[in-house]
Amino acid sequence: MPSHRAVLGAALLAGLAGAVASLYFQPRLAIQLANTEWGQRTLGTLLAARAPAPPPGLAIARPGARLPSFTVHTLDGTPVALPGRWAGRTTVVNLWATWCAPCLREMPILQAFARTQAQHGTQLAGIALDDAAAVRNFLHAHPARYPQLVAAPGPADAGVRLGNPAGVLPYTVLVDADGRLLKTHIGPFADTAALAAWAAP
Questions:
Q1: What pLDDT does 3 receive?
Q2: How far apart are alpha carbons 155 and 182 in whole angstroms?
Q3: Residue 66: DSSP 8-state
Q4: Closest CA to 180 of 35, 92, 83
């Protein structure tokens, strides 16, 4: 006869499996959960535990600290030094890829946010962790109304440097005018209001 502890353990596992299945078959619910502070903390903890170790000596952004210096490229291959490129304005940085379906679904939300900020609000920048030609082709067919940069994916890419060693996309960070990392967000935003609330001072 199974012990009380075994029965309780089986019930907890069944409940967890049910919750995971529910989120899998209801992606909108998963996004809503990920847009809560608790959901982000939980996701961050789970992903950090499973992430590969970054290369030795690689400088990685930490909340409250200034971003480490690194280089990405414009769509035509011109090097761009970060975080200097964003100096003087708070910046939302969204990491994405052309093969990432949730990233592409999130783009209209980012576009709408960029329009609301105009010239004087928080600026928005995309960094595609992808092949530059694929990004150019995608953006030719689906123009983005905010600046786009490109970085080669890998164990020391821009996402890892910005605090995402697990490589989950989309991944978004908020950087202040002095180049300090304020906060991170794993996964897509549910809507423009959720993004605006997250990026608010």
A1: 58
A2: 23
A3: B
A4: 83
Q: What integer pLDDT is reported at residue 191 of this predicted model? A: 94
The CA distance from 68 to 132, in Å, is 23
Q: Of 188, 30, 21, which is closest to residue 100 (Cα–Cα)? A: 188
Does residue 201 sit in helix, strand or coil? Answer: coil
Q: In whole angstroms, give the CA distance from residue 184 to residue 65.
A: 13
- The phi, psi pair for 8, rounded to 5°, reads -65, -40
Phi, then psi, of 170 in degrees rounded to 5: -70, 160
Q: Report the mean per-residue pLDDT for the chain.
A: 85
Q: Residues 13-40, buried b or exposed e (16+ Cβ, 10 A)?
A: eeeeeeeeeebeeeeeebbebbbeeebb
Which residues contact residue 72 at a Cβ distance below 8 angstroms, ignoring those fewer than 6 apart? 79, 80, 82, 127, 149, 150, 151, 158
- Give the span between the Cα atoms of 152 and 27, in whole angstroms: 29
pTM listed for this prediction: 0.81
Res. 156: pLDDT tops 50: yes
Give the amino acid at 148.
Q
- In sign, the C-alpha dihedral spanning 52, 85, 172, 130 is negative
Separation between Cα atoms, residue 163 and residue 199, nearest integer Å: 17
Which is nearest to 113 in space by CA: 82, 144, 70, 73? Answer: 144
- Phi and psi for 143 in degrees, rounded to 5? -60, 140
